[in-house]
Records
---
Amino acid sequence: MTTNHAQALYVPARPFALAIDRWIWVFMAAFFIAITLAGFIPDSLGKLAMVRAGARPPFPPILHVHAVLMGAFLLLLLTQAWLMATGRRDRHMLLGRAAFVLVPAIVVVGFILVPTIYQQVWNGAQAAPPPVREQLRQTLHFLDNIALLQTRIGIFFPLCIVLALRARHADPGFHKRMMFLAVATPLQAAMDRIAWLPTTAPVSPLSTDLYTLLAVSPLFVWDVARHRTVHRAYLVWLGLYLPFAVAVHLLWDTPGWHALVPRILGP
């Protein structure tokens, strides 16, 4: 009696592992939403209190548009993960077309929002009394560095989404991983607002990069444990991320960067 060698080596996945394979994507999408809420809700409530007290100007309308678009994208990600987990692939593919509208809108609105916020603080600094003016100048100094992170997000996020969407038919595994990895970069804005997290800011953006890696670590750890290898999507993502990270660290808080930003973002 002979035994096929391939059959002898094949060990079927346990039901528990198969369930995690399906539902970890739902968990990750919910986790990303939780990070967003943990960062933005307390921060927004604090700023709203300052607006009511007359300590800062009202939020510009473009900020609300940006919040709605990003919220819609995160809910789309959660819905897409749930549809695949429940075996509704046709609906997943149909709803996925919304990304072709949402992503360009997010990028365009984001690039409008950055100079809008900068100019709002700039104009406030010109009209403020001397003590407040100095505080606002320090805020502008900080916003110069934040513009580095925002520029990275504005380029890196759509680049990863394009790679993910191009692979949706030929390589579904790459597609779903890259979609989630793409979202990790915009999450930096939320993670940097979680007050109880240790941070290296404003001295260095190192903590921002480390928290980005931490945010995707549950998916990465499960992938490696489950498949005993590192999926190509992580290597592509990291290969793209590292040059951006190096550029941000090299330019962070340099005199040349502080001289350049007002020329680009100032009124």
---
Amino acid sequence: MKKLKYLLVCEGPTDVAFLKRLSSKLGKDLGAEVTIQELSPQRDATTGEWPAHGWNAVRTWCKSWRVKSDDDFASIAPHFVELAKRRTWKALVKTSADGLIIQMDTDIAEHITDLDERFPNTALGRREFCEKALFNWINESETSEEKPVFLLPSYAMETWLLALYDPSENVFSDLGTGFNYEEIVNLEDRLISLGFSSKKKKGVDRLAKKDSQYLNYADRVYNNFQTVKSRCSEAEKFECFLIESIRNQ
């Protein structure tokens, strides 16, 4: 059996748990042992706790490990230049893995302010805008020979959970015929109404975020993956990435 290892930068610990489990199961079906090692966030080895993270931390990591430009090197003290050259995402991959996956939900597109234009002022789709931002943060482009895999679900990873349910379900009764799962904004409210575990946060019901729950969710998505990928293009893209990676190994 082929073996592949990917490094992961994502929004939070439940994404780590979900993607590790789902990738492993999909990989086995494709004849490969796929393992994922989280780079950010990472669980504290002493306390066992996860740090606060989110999309801002994804951006911070990307900028910290970006491919450095001549302008970057010009602003670095000479004795640190060689170290800076080695502090890139490409160097991390080269020494320890087959690739890098960066996951970020696209519900934050409106909050990205460090590109030339804000999302509402562009003609780009939500995913395309977030992809452009990630390329900018790591100082790469679509034409780069080597680039990470971007996993950019709309509006969020939890869309794949909502896609487990048929369009005829009551939870979708307010939506028009032929609605697009990836355009549903109020994911949490709908999932909670379907019985997904929740807790109060500042007086508002929010999805409970526990690793064990998201391992279960990953199993459910895996068991119904043909349906999920037919309703979520990002899930299909992720499977295609795994297929191509395994084929080229």
---
Amino acid sequence: MVATHNISLTDFHVLQQLLRSANGSCRMGDIANGLLASRSRITHQVRRLEEQGLVKRGSMPQDRRAVLAALTEQGRTLGEAAMLTYSECVREHYLARLTRPQQAAVAESFRRVGEGAEEALNEPKGRVGE
């Protein structure tokens, strides 16, 4: 990511989270939860992305206390290109080594793990890992 797009892998994950959101924007706390990162880590990452012109911060109209991160047009373009690069790297370095049935098994395993992670994220605070 760094060599091709001049962003870190963590930057990529933040951009990816924003690209997957409904309108290219997300509350900072939701980004932190989605990436299993601290709010201070996400604040730092978003600040760096903002300095590069890839993201802008603002408050939510409904709740001025909440900070919203939103993709800029430049951020959307770079994020989409980085997602293609990431997909190509995964395909080339990991999936190409597997047969079709092995790829299907890996995909099913990741789907199940993802469902478990999603359920854990949606549990009330203090219950994860109990």
---
Amino acid sequence: MIAANANDCRMTVLQHQRPPPTDIPACADTWRLAPLAGLALLLAAPGIAIHLGLLPFAYRVHALLLVSGLCIGLCVWAGVSFSELGFGKPHQWSHWLGCAAVTLAIAAVMLLQTQMFTFEAKPPAWLSFAPFYVLVSSPCQEVVCRSIPKLITDRLQRGGWAYVLYSAAMFSLIHLCYGDPALLLNTFLLGLVWGAAYLWMANIWPLIVSHAAIGTLAFALGLA
């Protein structure tokens, strides 16, 4: 009887010392969301640094290019192909026609805004700015804000409108450094349109051209 009681006490002590079970599936689901938060943090980092006084505003373009290069480099290092980033065959005429219609509609809205509101932004030095914006900035923004979010949401099996909203939010975040609420709203709305277009096409080429055209028009009209 004494031995039995001793064994019972030992088992009771072991049961109390046994660590509680962990919810491994819940932890795994949380870690699966890490790329969503990581991309958002990377794109917001230059804007946050500027607003905290840690980075001069004049270095915003350099910081955004560094972040974009890091994001694209990580994708290439992870084995993501250029076709997965949307650089497939560019000669899909339905894509180009659809994107042309979208671009004209956006341009019409922008022209209407100039009639309703006053914008005081000064146009850039075109000779140095235009080649950089068309050939470097627009492609980088489209890959980082359209292609990469699509890769992440597809792997999470959260495509469709979840992707469109996330892509639009990333496009708005990358403009956080300017500290302009109207610009953040406009870029979010533009992100919804271009995100929906990429969801339909999975072709980044027409969107790069559309982005370059709309961005150039925005600078010319003083909207950006």
